[in-house]
Design brief:
By secondary structure, the chain is α/β, with parallel strands linked by helices. The chain has three helices and twelve strands; from the N terminus they run H-H-H-E-E-E-E-E-E-E-E-E-E-E-E. The protein is elongated, with a radius of gyration of 19 Å. It comes from Pseudonocardia hispaniensis.
């Protein structure tokens, strides 16, 4: 496929990005910032958008324009593979902008609470067979799990999905076969964290 004329236009956006932008416009209507006619015009532009830059004009004159739309991290993902014994990343570790996790049968634990998070958005692609995955995120972090498809297991997030400026945001997507996927904060009970 040929790149758009004039060179690359940046990062392509997802359906979730468009929906967040549309929610911001509906909120602006409820706040009395735009009229119904303006809402319809701007929604047309949002749903036609293909690149992050396309979402700037419909949101440019609204407060917190950057909150609903976060650019997808660039560069190749760091690949983590789990065997039957599973995979654990805990303690202090530097989190890349993109992670791809493959696990056939082992369980996966990604604990981001003490990790270095240099990127405002972290993409986590899960490709799981029979194993389960737990993602522990820091206080204030948000996670969008709409792109995660589960076969027979469950998918749960106990943190908000809408990004909050100044806090890390996780985009979790991919496939889970038989195991469950849970995104939550770390629990503390009687001096024990889990």
């Amino acid at each position: 496929m040929q790149p758009p004329s004039g060179g690359s236009r940046g990062i392509r956006i997802s359906d979730a990005d468009r929906e967040r932008a549309a929610q911001r416009l509906h909120q602006a209507l409820a706040e009395g910032r735009i009229t119904v006619a303006e809402l319809e015009e701007r929604l047309t532009a949002v749903y036609a958008a293909r690149y992050a830059d396309d979402l700037t004009p419909p949101l440019a004159d609204l407060p917190d324009v950057t909150a609903p739309v976060l650019s997808t991290p660039a560069g190749p993902p760091t690949i983590l593979r789990a065997g039957v014994g599973g995979l654990r990343r805990t303690g202090v570790w530097r989190v890349p902008a993109r992670l791809r996790v493959h696990s056939g049968m082992g369980s996966v634990l990604l604990d981001f609470t003490d990790a270095e998070l240099p990127h405002p958005v972290v993409e986590v692609e899960l490709q799981l067979g029979a194993g389960s995955a737990r993602l522990l995120v820091p206080a204030g972090a948000t996670a969008d799990i709409d792109g995660l498809v589960s076969g027979m297991g469950s998918v749960r997030s106990k943190v908000p999905a809408t990004p909050v400026p100044g806090h890390p945001h996780f985009r979790v997507y991919g496939r889970s076969g038989l195991g469950s996927v849970t995104v939550r904060r770390r629990y503390r009970f009687a001096g024990i964290t889990f």
